[in-house]
Amino acid sequence: MRDLLNGVVLAVALSFGAPLPGQTDATGRIPPVAATPDTARLHRALAAALGDDFHIVHTELHSDLRERGGTFWLVHALPRRAGMFELRYRYDYRELTRPADPLYTHVEHTSYIRVGEQGCWRRRQAKDACLGDTVILPFVVSDTGHAFTLTFRDAGGTGLSGEADAQAAPGADSVPNPLSAHLRFLGAGRHHTPSRAATGRGRTTFSAGFVAMAPGRFNLSLSSRPSAAGSVPIVIVPRGQPVTVLLGREQITARHETQGFASHWGNQYMTSVLLLQPGDPISLEFMPPGVAGTLLPLSVSIDAADDPTGSIAPIITRFPFQVDPAHAFNAFVADHLPAERGLP
User: Contact, 66 vs 44, CB < 8 A?
Assistant: First the structure.
């Protein structure tokens, strides 16, 4: 029962980026790693696993995000062929509170890298990168005993192609939009979630739809009280321009080899930056002016005809491009985004 409860707590904690159980000291903080990770050995092991499918361009250590998992080894790699790849690595589990009776013996991370042909549509074809792009592969290296494997799964489908067939709602183009040269406003939608409470009032969320039009870098705010601090950084690059992207999703399994106990959960390396190409549609939540209440972060599908009068249109405000490196995992990509001078 103890192990079962620990496993439940583990899955919930890691879904919010918390450290593994047993990985904190008496003060609740992750203790310093005894020595700098042996990146030379890691490099040799990873290069052998990547083979001819990926070329390692650059590596760096990040240790200032310890509350999100410890020390990270960031590997910048160029894919050499298109397709679906499974990247897996494992390391020994370091138990601090019960070293004689560890809950697990090792931890395993599994990621899938979807690589499209050069000039692919990343978002519309559900690709992580195109040939020519650089992929940042994040590895947790706070512990030891790392081993890597890479498996080619299949060539992968092409998904949608061409520019998005985005239809604007009637009157959408009349909404003031200082970003119209880069982002066309398509309209706003609402989604109501009934409440199980006796009041039956439920919650309503609002989303604004846009389609990328032309390259540029800027921050976008949809707030009735616009502020650069709450804006979304957006970079639109020409189709075919190589970029650097962060591999953002993985599945993690912690298991005990002899006792057979295991926990499974998903992890995301989230950033606030939206990297787009002309033709990419996006949907962003907002609160219309005069609407009170708290909105839940629900997924909303935009229907251009949902708001034909424009009565719930957002207030679109442009701010100079900026990325907060202290937010989420922005620090992993902040120095590798396309520069303004590199855009048409």
Answer: no
d(Cα 263, Cα 109) in Å, to the nearest integer? 12
180 contacts 269 by C-beta, under 8 angstroms: no
Residue appearing with tokens 């976008």? 220
Alpha-carbon distance of 136 to 271, in angstroms, equals 13
* First-residue to last-residue Cα distance in the chain: 61
Rg of the chain on CA atoms, in Å: 23
* 207 and 331, same domain (yes or no): yes
11 and 71, same domain (yes or no): yes
- Measured in whole angstroms, the distance separating CA 132 from the mean position of its chain's CA atoms is 20
Question: Is 12 within a domain?
Answer: yes
Please tell me the distance from the alpha carbon of residue 68 to that of residue 19, in angstroms, as a whole number: 6
Domain match, 92 and 178 both: no
Domain interval for residue 291: 172-239+277-342
Q: How many domains does the chain have?
A: 2
Any bridge partners for residue 91, and if so which? Answer: 107
Rounded to whole angstroms, the Cα distance separating 116 from 193 reads: 37
Helix (H) or strand (E) holding 35: none
Q: Which of 235, 242, 267, 211 minimizes the C-alpha distance to 115?
A: 242
pLDDT tens track of the chain, all 344 residues?
Answer: 344 334 433 333 333 344 444 444 444 444 444 468 999 999 999 999 999 999 999 999 988 664 455 789 999 999 999 999 999 999 999 887 888 888 899 999 999 999 999 999 999 899 999 999 999 999 999 889 999 999 998 876 655 555 556 788 888 899 999 999 999 999 998 877 776 665 556 677 899 999 999 999 999 999 988 899 889 999 999 999 999 999 999 999 999 988 888 999 999 999 999 999 999 999 999 988 766 443 333 333 334 344 444 457 899 999 999 999 988 899 999 999 998 776 76
Considering the domain boundaries, does residue 165 fall inside one? no
- How many of the other CB atoms lie within 10 Å of CB of 105? 15
Same domain, residue pair 225 and 128: no
